[in-house]
Amino acid sequence: MTVHAETLAVPGGRVSRGSREAWIGLGLLLPAAVLVFAFTLFPVGYNLWLGFQAKHALRPTTAWVGLENYVQILQDTDFWRSVWVGTVYAVWSTVLQIGTGVAGALILHRRFPGCDFLRGVALFPYMIPTVIAVFVWRWLMNDLYGVVPYILSALHIPGMPEAWLAHGTIMLVLIAVSVWTFFPFVLVNVLARLQTIPPELYDAARVDGASPLRQFVHVTLPQLRNVLLIVVLLRGIWMFTKFEVPWLLGFGGGAGEAIRTLPVFTYQRSFTYYQAGMGAALSNVMFALLLAVVTIYLVAFPPDVEEQDA
Amino acid sequence: MNGWQSDPRLVRLVAERREGALSRRTFLARLAGTGAGLAGATLVGGARPAGAQKRVVVTMWDTEPNPATRAAVKAIVEDFQKLHKDIEIRAEGMGWGDMDRKLQAAMAAKSPPTASHTQTYVVTSFRAKGLIEPVDDLVNAVGKDRIFPSVLQWLEYDGRFWGMTHAWGADNLGGRGDLAREAGVNPQGWKTWDDWLRDLPKLNKAPTYYALSMAGIPFFVNEDVYMWTGSNGGRLFDDQGNPQLDSRPVIEMLEFWKKVRGYMPSGWASHDYLETLSAWASGKAAQCFMWGRTAGYIDQYAPADKRNPDIFQMWPKTIGPSGTKPLTQFDNEPWVIYADASADEKAAAKEFLKFFFKKENYRRYCDSVPVHLLSIFKEDFQDASYLGHPERKRWKPWLDAQVRWVEQGRAHPLLVCDPKERLVPWLGDVAAAPILADMVMAVVERGRDPRVAAKEANEKIARDIIGKAKKA
Fold first, then answer.
1. Please, how many CA atoms are within 13 Å of residue B39, restricted to the half-sphere of its CB?
2. Which residues, including other chains, have CB under 8 Å from residue A202's CB and lie 6 or more apart?
3. Which of A104, A187, A174, A85 has the alpha carbon at shortest distance from A138?
4. What is the ipTM of this complex?
5. What is the pTM of this model?
6. Least CA distance to A275: which residue of chain B?
7. Could you tell me the end-to-end alpha-carbon distance of chain B, in angstroms, rounded to an integer?
8. What is the pLDDT of residues A7-18, one digit of tens each?
9. E runs forming strands in B8-66
10. Phi, psi (deg, nearest 5) at residue B416
11. Which residue among B99, B130, B290, B399 is least crowded, i.e. fewest CB within 10 A of its CB?
12. Which of A253, A252, A89, A106 is nearest to A177 (CA)?
């Protein structure tokens, strides 16, 4: 801003120090600007343009179709089904990740023998490559030779399904795999925040006679508010756009039809139907949906500025 | 013929422009590129010293990535190169799914291999676009009359051959002989779906074992859709390529699937092909649909005392109420030669393939998967040295079952119930999309009325595949 003001003040025709600095500043910005253009603005712009085309994913054939892709998307029951399935998956897996992550963080916040070891172990699911985690879960849950259905059937628990990777139950497995894999992210973030809460706050609460539950509700939770707001936002976005877990668990068809989330539906349009234009339009719609939800979320739950400053 | 008409790249470029598939700007840009390429090639060719020997590099992609076949191909290539020092063969094996994508991308980039394996429906598509060349000279040199007619027929268009099958195999219904005996069932007497349905309950001792294991992954469901529709006298497309899923044979097929579902594991819809083989080998399923290469799987994973064709038997496929003959899937991938390759490369590729199909070389290739990479030559099935291979000898009933399909001409390529469907240009797109599998799941797993599900699938193919194909 200062540079800009000085530049304006210089009489025309003479290269001032301010003007030189402005050029240097622009020069320094240029590499970043080029990168942002090449890797963000151009792909987004190209994707927007592609959404108006009927374009084969691999062959060099393209035709302008205007809004036709978008009209078809909005009329397609399979699209709305994938939005619903994706929302169910994102909401439940995020809620359960937050629950298990916060609970785990509260436990590991205490000092007890082996807690450092457990803090390390808790990160393991997040460190395992997703493809391995999902395939191990597929084996565990297989109805013919999986160990989990075997144990459950041996326990004779009433109402247990025969197959977990079937149409009616595969969503439960998908959510379980996702919670198991991604809850450490929540745990680490919450644990880090817990360790910065001043102990005096708890001392004061105890002096006032607050029970552990009241301390959690009136001290811990408010202190975690900003971290939780961000973690819920990030995990919600990431779960709604998660592709590899539902794809590897269900391969997009068979029982996988019941977990065909919007990213899987988009992938199939792009790479099994080879419709790059439709795939681009779908990803634009997904982006718009997320933008709308995130905006509502941030308006409804604005970050606590006081806590940030603290 | 004008000079430019002798260059297939220019011919195709002009054709694409005339059809309106290319904008004027794209056409001119590509024309300049082609011209520059030709000029460069001429320059390089002209600059070569007289008498200098040019080394021709031939790229060949095949769909047999297993180690035994790779070793056989490597040995054949090495022997060929000892005789042809001026030719370098670069042979690469990959799964057919990878091949499909890699080929499409290579075609888009105008840099295909010299030759490759591919699917029958891809031959239809590539031929129509002028991307591949006829190989009549290769077929005649190898010996057209020696090859099973029902192997070659799928590659003949308007009297010319556009590919040459590398080896073949036919899908079969594998059944456990021990479990059939235990249940007092004689599968060899089955003729119709009703016969089969009558005995399925006897072969079903759930949860100890199930009567049938089928894969629920879309690709495999597609296979079963067309095999059962074909066995019920139906087809998936009419002569114009319009889907016929609301036809009576397809509806009956869906109804039949619902009945069969009761004798399969509850989680069948998430099982892949290997899981069905595993269930069959380990005695968790009395039957599964399988290929000849399963013999290797049985030899590795079935209990040692059961690894024989008396336990792992071939059972007949049956016909539906509207059908007269059963139908099975044909693994009949051909070698094709790409038009974009240089004349030298194409000639060298054909030379290599002639060498590849010589008895001693071809036998090495077929022996790498003895009960699945079956010889295209009729004479081999009368040849004691071919039939005497220990694995072929041991699994002779499996070999015989496959040969019967070919002799009857009832082994058809993927999604081809009727030979005319081979010409449907969007067959490959339907095979890749999950539409048929979704139709089956809607009926079998979600209880949708077969007529409604079939109508929806028809509309999806018309809108999402045919409509889009015509636009793009």
1. 6
2. A215, A219
3. A174
4. 0.85
5. 0.85
6. B468
7. 31
8. 444 455 556 788
9. 56-62
10. -105, 95
11. B130
12. A89
